[in-house]
Design brief:
InterPro entries: MFS_dom, MFS_sugar_transport-like, MFS_trans_sf, Sugar_transporter_CS. The protein has 2 domains: 3-330 and 388-487, Growth Hormone, Chain: A; 336-380, no CATH class. It is globular and about 80 Å long. The chain is α+β, with helices and mostly antiparallel strands and 497 residues long. The protein has helices spanning 3-32, 34-40, 47-63, 65-78, 81-99, 105-108, 111-139, 147-175, 178-183, 188-205, 211-219, 226-231, 234-269, 274-288, 290-302, 305-329, 390-411, 414-421, 427-443, 446-459, 471-487; strands at 337-348, 354-362, 367-375, 378-387. The longest helix is centred in the middle third of the chain and has 36 residues, at 234-269. A 4-stranded antiparallel β-sheet has the order 1-2-3-4, with no helix packed on it. Helices cover 71% and strands 8% of the residues.
Amino acid sequence: MSKTSTKGIWKVISASSMGTMIEWYDFYIFGSLAVVISTKFFPSDNPTAAFLSTLATFAAGFVVRPFGALFFGRLGDIIGRKYTFMATLLLMGGSTFLIGCIPSYETIGFLAPLLVLILRLLQGLALGGEYGGAATYVAEHAPPGEKGYWTSWIQTTATVGLFISLMVILATKSALSAENFDLWGWRVPFWVSIAMVGVSYLIRKNMDESPVFAKAKKEGTTSTNPLKESFGNRYNLKFVLLALFGATMGQGVVWYTGQFYAMSFMKTVMNVDSSQVDELLGIALLIGTPFFIVFGWLSDKVGRKYIMMFGMLLAILSYRSIYTAMYNTTDISQKTEIVENPRETTEKKADGSSVTISQKKYTDGTTMIEKKTYMDKKDVQTNISIQITSSDKWALIFLVFIQVLFVTMVYGPIAAFLVEMFPTKIRYTSMSLPYHVGNGIFGGLLPAISTYFVSHAKTAGKTDYYLDGLWYPIIIAGICFVIGMIYIDNKNKITHL
């Protein structure tokens, strides 16, 4: 490839990736702050129900992503890739900024969660149209035989967006006191988005249309009804269904297990301090992100199928062992408490409630802070925060990194895999739907479903209750692995159908 063409595609990669990364940042800032948001926009008398409601609202954004894929995918195949994902960028940025402006539940009551839900749905619609456009745009600029490598740069944007969201949260927390962050500082990451979106919009505004689409439009071979041609044509519909059930469904659950469920698990099941979780997850993501490029490049050499299927298989076989090891790092029952000089303070509030904070230290350096809020002599809320040691932090970083490695195997090649499955005139629409059903519904529902399974198992008294949430990704990925191995060959062709 010539220096000129290399320079040209790097410009495309930079412009596309920056905008897509910002959209992922916008989308995931909600999930990164789920624990805090549950106390702001939902009733505080039942913390577990409030957190599950927050996860459900988070998941709602994923559920509508397929509708965004249909709406914006159709526009992208009719009017072009460039203008469509400029519109999705503005819709996403505006929704994110406004979430940061909504008054709390205490101020406006049930109107607060309703407004959050509406804006979350708009975020989902926007993201449904963004990814397909960016992946298609980059792939249509890439030279033959290198689509896996060049589109893998787009694949890094989801993880980089999550990483930046964690870093912005950590920076905001470090700049403010704990009280100010809880009072209003948590809104800052939402507000930051609007400046990032403005810069990205200016960059995208100066981009040219995809040469492949521009050529098709000039020759008059673009589709006039992409939805009908994508899903009304039985031959193409087979590819759409196979892309979903043989690839993106499993990829989606592996992606969300390795990043979002790992974060939720450490914060809510293991009770690790929120800032420590953000820090260690950020490090694991930083170390793991380059492997998106590695496996995207490798898929150009050996094919997409076996890399993605092997990633799913490794995840299926190792998740329970990984999460058992994670849980054991903070299992207080396996640690020795230092009983000398226990610390406990009680504070009475004007509303008649009282808060008791007790601190326990353990011989390995672990510290547990337990906060109990009493109202009318009844324990209404218990919050536990565990400060882990440096060795435990690096152990968790390694265990999360392994999961991120699985993510890079299934996600690195997926954009090129999907782009190559469909013809130019219906590519945006055809690839967007299976991607966003697989990721938005099967993947996006994972945190809420898995957290519910863990809560139910804990209530039932199971000793290994913390592992029950893994059955969902293991089963979904297992089904996808079988279908993908049987019905997809290594050149993205359907077999036996």
